[in-house]
Design goal:
The chain contains 6 helices and 7 strands. It is of the alpha+beta class and 200 residues long. It has 3 domains: 57 residues, no CATH class; 68 residues, no CATH class; 42 residues, no CATH class. The longest helix is centred in the C-terminal third of the chain and has 18 residues. The two termini are 17 Å apart.
Length: 200
């Protein structure tokens, strides 16, 4: 669905890259609107808008902590690594110093840390803490990468900001109800418009 410079698309059962959608869009324009121009989909990011949307609630903060060894070293070192940020809260997870053997084994383990508020996400103190942690990740950056997902469906990473809305329609892996898809896509478009993520 297109309106002005905004495009909302849906995929069936598997993700599709923006570049593939750009190719499809240009083929459709070439077939139905003989124009020499080629269009490229790019996201215009309004940092103030997505930071405001974070205040509606954080679904999760996913930290790619990379090699687990660095995390173990930090935790067993009483949190003395400068600029460690959120890991200062995890110190209590390791009570003894890690042995050289444990550190060597940890080099072969990749770790991810996902913070979720659970059912208590709407409690004021929980919302505030999750928002503070998300803002800290954004402001300080996280060398190994991160993803912040808001309750409204916005996914923020170091490289991009995306918004999605999942829906179900009748059908199977090969054939789906196109009327339901059209209705759901229109509803998603309206929802994104209400969130204020389209250019005005």
């Amino acid at each position: 669905m297109c309106r002005g410079d905004d495009v909302v698309f849906t995929t069936h059962n598997s993700p599709v890259r923006d570049s593939s959608i750009s190719v499809l869009l240009n083929k459709l324009l070439e077939a139905f609107c003989p124009d020499e121009a080629t269009y490229l989909l790019t996201a215009t990011l309004d940092e103030r808008r997505y930071r405001a949307m974070m205040q509606d609630g954080i679904e999760e903060i996913d930290l790619d902590v990379g090699g687990y060894r660095s995390t173990l070293e930090y935790l067993s070192n009483q949190g003395q690594i400068p600029n460690a940020g959120l890991f200062s809260m995890l110190k209590s997870l390791v009570s003894d110093d890690a042995t050289p053997e444990e550190l060597e084994a940890a080099e072969r383990i990749m770790g991810r840390l996902t913070l979720r508020p659970g059912r208590a996400w709407d409690q004021p103190q929980v919302r505030e803490l999750m928002l503070e942690m998300a803002e800290e990740v954004l402001d300080e950056g996280h060398d190994e990468g991160f993803a912040i997902v808001t309750k409204s469906g916005v996914r923020i990473t170091r490289d991009s900001v995306r918004v999605r809305d999942d829906f179900r329609v009748d059908g199977n892996r090969r054939v789906i109800d196109t009327v339901q898809v059209r209705t759901a896509l229109s509803d998603a478009f309206d929802h994104f418009d209400e969130l204020g993520i389209f250019e005005r």
